[in-house]
Amino acid sequence: MTATRTAWHIPHYGRPDTLTPVTLPMPQPGPNEVLIRIHASAVTRADGMMRKGEPLFARPFLGLRRPRNGLSGTGLSGEVMATGNKVSRFASGDLVFGEAGMHFGANASHICLDEGGVLMPKPASLSHEEAAVLCDGVLTSWHYLHNLGEVQSGDRVLILGGAGSLGSAAVQIAAHMGAEVTATCSARNASFVASLGADQVIDYNAEDALQRGAGYDVIFDTLGVGTFSTAKPALADTGRYLCPVLTLGRLPAILLSRLGRKRALFAAAGLEKPQRLRAMLSEILTQIEQDHLTPIIDRTYLLSDLLEAHAYVEAGHKRGNVVVV
């Protein structure tokens, strides 16, 4: 009997109910690949945007009518079941975490990944659920605050959207970097965000955090709720506006800001070379080991309930991360 795996197919761009469970032949690892049995995988806002084919200008790269790969999910954690004959970094039985990247297919029972990709040994101190989400909000926030925003001790940092996947990581990262952290969230999440290390929490329904003259050195817009033009008056003279949500409307601001002292900056973490991403993940694991950073898990669903997980993420009220097991 031929071995099979379960996965989730995206037949066309659309709502969560477009996701379709499928049974596929078990993949066989190539010479440099490992076969992984997935114990947990992330369900992210970016996964939802990919499922919807947003932003539209990304479709030539993703696929015009549906994602070219056609499968859902990027972040994962699991166990190596088999290896190709040229694999040297991993062996059968190793516990690993990482991301499928543009190949997708992490919301599944099994996957084959190149050992030279974004794949790391899973520390025993982390659950599979915690490890599966490290390559989304945690890694992106680390990249933006450390490498792009170059946050320094004493900087005033505003995080727009402090309760989500990126925000919950960003608050912890910025606080440990010695920044004075202000974060926005709903009133119900205020105590949660404060517990992560925010010095000030602003209810976005009651107050505009982007007050003229606020003097923030860095504004990290985790959800793309603002623009450079709305954030600019709240920045310090050499302040940086960071936003990982790229739209056509934001491109002119990123380009034109190079002419001024206040800057709008964007850099897709996923386009960095795997070696660089693995180096960042090593730094993140050190921070986790030293109790300076904790990946936050909001809800865990069964893999068979992926539609419900996508719908919950799309509602926009999650605290931290959502995973399927």
UniProtKB/TrEMBL annotation:
It comes from Thalassorhabdomicrobium marinisediminis. It comes from the Bacteria. SMART domains: PKS_ER (SM00829). Pfam families: ADH_N (PF08240), ADH_zinc_N_2 (PF13602). SUPFAM superfamilies: GroES-like (SSF50129), NAD(P)-binding Rossmann-fold domains (SSF51735). GO terms for molecular function: oxidoreductase activity. This is NAD(P)-dependent alcohol dehydrogenase. InterPro entries: ADH-like_N, ER, GroES-like_sf, NAD(P)-bd_dom_sf, YIM1/Zinc_Alcohol_DH_Fams. Residues 14-324 form the Enoyl reductase (ER) domain.
